[in-house]
Amino acid sequence: MVLGLIPARFASTRLPGKPLVDLGGRSMIQRVVEQARQANLARVVVATDDARIQQHVQDFGGEAVLTRPDHPSGTDRLWEAFQQLGSPADVHCIVNIQGDEPFIHPGQINALADLFADAATAPDIATLVKPVLTDEELFSPHLPKVVLNQLGHAMYFSRHPLPYQRGREPEQWLAHHRYLRHLGLYAYKPTVLEQLTRLPVSPLEAAESLEQLRWLEAGFRIQCAETELEAFGIDTPEDAERARVRLAR
């Protein structure tokens, strides 16, 4: 059984009440839930810190659990939500679906869930990567990059382009190397998710402000699946307006 969990906090510095923002007649969180329900998930549950979000999800027929407001990360919120659901023993994979991506494609969710179909080969953690297509993406510190080994396991994540190309000007880098971007969609074995919540902040994580570096430093293997589909996260009022324009089209 594959369980989809969607962390959704009310507080947001740049867009307060983000999960409830209206996008073309439906809230952002409703759109995320509806997209997730099209994937091969046995159950989709919103994990929120606010009763208004919980009630709203229940009003449109979704499932939501109310979690503590003081979790340091979405990973911790997911673990509490899983426990509230009774830690079902038949769940072999938990997919962490970002609550601010109303256009998440069901195929992207399935790409991760499929990696856990065989218990003998299932990874500890899985995530998505996408080819970098523009210099703007490559050099944006807001779009983490990742380097993989030959088995498709993540070696390192960084806000800086990796690898550095010695002897070439930065504007030539994309023409001479295939760079990959990290998309913030994760899947875990339940036992691994529990272990992740016990890890302290690591030096690399503190330097880059990327939680997945904590997991790598602790020795967890992160399997990456590649997608050509774009991610569309909403963090600001401007992002929300672009989403409305996209929906209007």
Structure description:
The chain is an alpha/beta fold and 249 residues long. It has helices at residues 28-37, 51-59, 74-84, 106-113, 135-139, 173-176, 190-196, 203-208, 211-217, 237-248, and strands at 2-8, 22-23, 26-27, 43-48, 63-66, 93-96, 125-131, 145-148, 154-158, 180-188, 222-226. A hairpin with a 5-residue loop joins strand 8 and strand 9.
CATH class value: Alpha Beta
Structural class: alpha/beta
CATH fold-level label: Spore Coat Polysaccharide Biosynthesis Protein SpsA, Chain A
Alpha-carbon distance between the termini? 36 Å
Shape: globular
Rounded mean pLDDT score: 92
Question: Rg, please?
Answer: 18 Å
Strand tally is 11
The name of the CATH superfamily reads: Spore Coat Polysaccharide Biosynthesis Protein SpsA, Chain A
Helix-strand sequence: EEEHEHEHEHEHEEHEHHHEH
Domain count: 1
In DSSP terms (H or I, runs of 4 or more residues), the helix count works out at 10
Identify low-pLDDT runs.
none
CATH-level-2 architecture: Alpha-Beta Complex
| Fraction in beta strands | 15-25%
For the largest beta-sheet, the strand count, sense and barrel status come to:
9 strands, mixed
Helix content: 25-40%
